[in-house]
Write a structure and sequence with these properties.
This protein is α/β, with parallel strands linked by helices and about 500 residues long. The longest helix is centred in the last third of the chain and has 41 residues. Strands 2, 3, 5, 6, 9, 10, 11 and 12 form an 8-stranded mixed beta sheet that branches. Helix 4 packs across helix 18, helix 12 packs across helix 13 and helix 13 packs parallel to helix 15. It contains 19 helices and 12 strands.
Length: about 500
């Protein structure tokens, strides 16, 4: 019998003759009873848990429909789009570094910020997207102090040793609107609504969450809210960002109400086409989105939409763009005809602040432990969906450019001059797309590991925030697609 087995088999004795093994057993029994009592209390109180999750959206109005149909004209000859990934405050800081790169540290010849036209965002990236969309270039001056250095976890319930928190977890989520959403609204967005966001006109922002019931991406954009028969303009931006960041169980789902009795517009006329499998790379996701829109109009099927973290369906925010392109029904959608006539070059950057696989359990026969199994399984599903979306997006951009050129070349001179002045040189095939991915992995193993080791939290030490910003800026400045876009822009003004 080896020493370990002997220690387990032969308890030692204390001075009063009581075996330490017996004492340990007694302590264990007391702890077990205490734990069972706490769990029972949590289970009993779970049903009584009350959440601040009342829907904040309002029924649709004719004014909202009219405003949504108005031309915005934000696409210029040089256009930049971004998709900002999830990853908590790490992703928000990394994305901010990318935006710093677009301003080129004040170099007028390389300042591209005013060409930023569109941002699609998920989770932590939505903090950056919404704030900059609301404040524009001025927001670059105070985003660090007001957002990245803020402790967004200060009002969160984080301890699972609390029976109250455990009861809330069992009832649907530890935190609700009174925590993160309230902090975002009071301290970051100051009650701003989507009407405030749209008044700035540019960049257009799509904040992405996940519709848990339909298992589809849910972008906060006017067409989706018309499907809900709801007025997006009256909704607070903090609600959308909170939904985009609502990690399941840590947060209760953000709830929206469907207003099927208040609809002022019919369902899209191409619903049957959307539901059909046309063999394209986006057929499945388009069909599932069409089913979701149909469900929103059916009060026997859905009266409430429950939203969680957008990263559950696509952690880079590309799926909603694929859907918009597929359902537009035009050669050039989701852009408009006047957009594509003005357009000469477009740069689209996929900003990826996600974390690759980590941990040492792949080096051992045993493990991973239970919690890590759940996390790894969720990460595998999320990463798989994200990779498929990214691959489909790159394929779609090639088709989009070719289709756009075909439409441009079919226009008459009179049609072109409705959107371009007579002295503006026009070549129908003069459209170039640049697509690139920005991640810390391009910065070398040491800096990539530094970002990889940062937790996905809503509060980070200043040194981590600095490192994430620097990584985003440097990775963007070194990106080949950004450099090619800038070079082409200078060579062919």
């Amino acid at each position: 019998m080896n020493a370990k087995r002997k220690l387990l088999a032969e308890p030692t004795h204390s001075a009063n003759g009581t075996g330490t093994g017996q004492l340990a057993a007694a302590r264990f029994r007391r702890a077990l009873v205490t734990g069972c009592v706490a769990l029972q209390a949590a289970l009993l109180t779970a049903c009584a848990a009350r959440f601040d999750n009342a829907p904040q959206n309002q029924p649709i109005t004719a004014e909202f429909i009219a405003q949504s149909a108005q031309a915005r004209g934000i696409v210029g000859s040089n256009t930049i789009g971004l998709s900002l990934s999830g990853g908590g405050l790490r992703a928000a800081a990394f994305s901010f570094g990318v935006l710093q790169a677009l301003t080129a540290a004040g170099d007028p010849a390389a300042d591209l910020f005013d060409e930023l036209t569109f941002i699609s965002s998920v989770s932590g990236g939505s903090l950056t997207a919404a704030y900059i969309a609301l404040h524009g270039r001025d927001g670059m001056q105070h985003f660090r102090a007001r957002v990245l250095d803020a402790d967004l976890e200060r009002d969160l319930r984080l301890s699972l040793f609390s029976p109250v928190n455990l009861s809330r977890l069992l009832a649907g989520g530890v935190n609700d609107r009174s925590n993160l959403a309230a902090t975002l609204d009071a301290d970051i967005f100051h009650g701003a609504t989507f009407a405030d966001l749209y008044r700035r006109n540019k960049p257009d922002v799509w904040i992405n969450a996940t519709d848990l019931y339909n298992r589809t991406p849910f972008p906060f954009i006017p067409p989706v809210f018309q499907g809900l028969c709801s007025d997006l303009s009256q909704l607070r931006v903090s609600e959308a960002v909170a939904a985009s960041m609502a990690v399941p169980l840590v947060f209760t789902p953000v709830v929206l109400k469907t207003f099927s009795n208040d609809c002022l517009t019919p369902l899209p006329p191409n619903m049957d086409t959307m539901l059909a499998d046309d063999g394209s790379v986006t057929a499945g996701i388009v069909a599932s989105t069409a089913r979701a829109i149909r469900n929103y109009r059916d009060p026997q099927r859905m009266r409430y939409v429950k939203l969680a973290d957008g990263g559950l369906t696509d952690n880079q925010g590309l799926a909603s763009i694929l859907i918009a392109r597929a359902v537009s029904g035009t050669r050039y959608g989701p852009m408009r005809e006047d957009d594509i006539v003005r357009l000469r070059r477009m740069l689209f950057l996929i900003v990826d602040a996600g974390r690759p696989p980590s941990g040492d359990w792949a080096l051992q026969r045993d493990g991973p432990p239970g919690l890590d199994v759940g996390i790894a399984a969720a990460d595998a599903a999320i990463d798989s969906a994200t990779r498929l979306s990214a691959a489909a997006f790159r394929t779609m951009t090639v088709e989009w450019r070719d289709s756009m050129i075909r439409h441009r070349c079919s226009l008459t001179e009179a049609q072109v001059r409705r959107y371009l002045p007579a002295d503006k040189v026009w070549r129908c095939d003069d459209v170039t797309f640049f697509v690139g991915t920005i991640s810390a992995e391009s910065l070398g193993p040491e800096r990539a590991a530094r970002l990889r080791d940062m937790p996905t939290r809503l509060s980070l030490p200043r040194a981590d925030v600095d490192a994430a910003i620097d990584a985003g800026r440097d990775a963007a400045l070194a990106n080949s697609a950004l450099r090619a876009y800038l070079a082409d822009r200078i060579a062919r003004p």
